[in-house]
């Protein structure tokens, strides 16, 4: 019965269900875009730069890929609360706060994977790029462009992490109906309330999104391998 109710909500384009899906995608995509704009240049610079403590920075970045979402949510909550340093902005319990939390959560993934990708390319094309007399910025742009397919895969990995995240957005967003309620937070709430059709409908859509992300990642990886081959 719950399965039938869930499919009915999906097929009938239930406004409440798809409003939650739309908000979830908007927040996660915004966070991925912000993390990419920051993480791609930082990852690339880390790949071909040499400075004291570089190894420690790489280890730290890789470690932060497993950063617990609730810890990120707590830190952002404290920063945006009334007594926090950014409390005057009034961002707590808004979609913006959720985007900030997800951006922080995704950024180590973007930086670490970008660093590995660009480092491999830098090792392969280092002599050619130096011989061309490109500036450091020119080398960075050239490497980022050459790695564009791999970097798109990195973005998809970050989006998958963001779309399935619940702890951080629950803390900083407050799970407010019609304003900050995402798929993951709604599933948790509706299950506790016993509204299983809505919870299952959202769960089915979330699973479909995750499968689509993983399929796209695999296809892009296969395309990149065929192009290199």
SSE topology:
Layout: H1 2-11, H2 15-48, H3 54-64, H4 69-80, H5 95-131, H6 136-146, H7 148-163, H8 167-173, H9 183-193, H10 196-228
Structure explained in plain terms:
This protein is mainly α and 229 residues long. The chain has a single domain (2-228), classed as MetI-like fold, CATH 1.10.3720. Helices cover 79% and strands 0% of the residues. The protein has ten helices and no strands. Helix 3 packs antiparallel against helix 5, helix 5 (95-131) packs across helix 8 (167-173) and helix 7 (148-163) packs antiparallel against helix 10. The relative contact order is 0.16. The model has no long low-confidence stretch (mean pLDDT 87).
Overall pLDDT confidence: 87
Strand-and-helix sequence, N→C?
HHHHHHHHHH
Note the total helix count.
10
% residues in beta strands: under 5%
Overall shape: globular
- What is the number of beta strands? 0
According to CATH, the fold-level topology is: MetI-like fold
Distance between the termini: 51 Å
* Poorly predicted ranges: none
CATH superfamily: MetI-like
Domain tally: 1
Main beta sheet, described? none
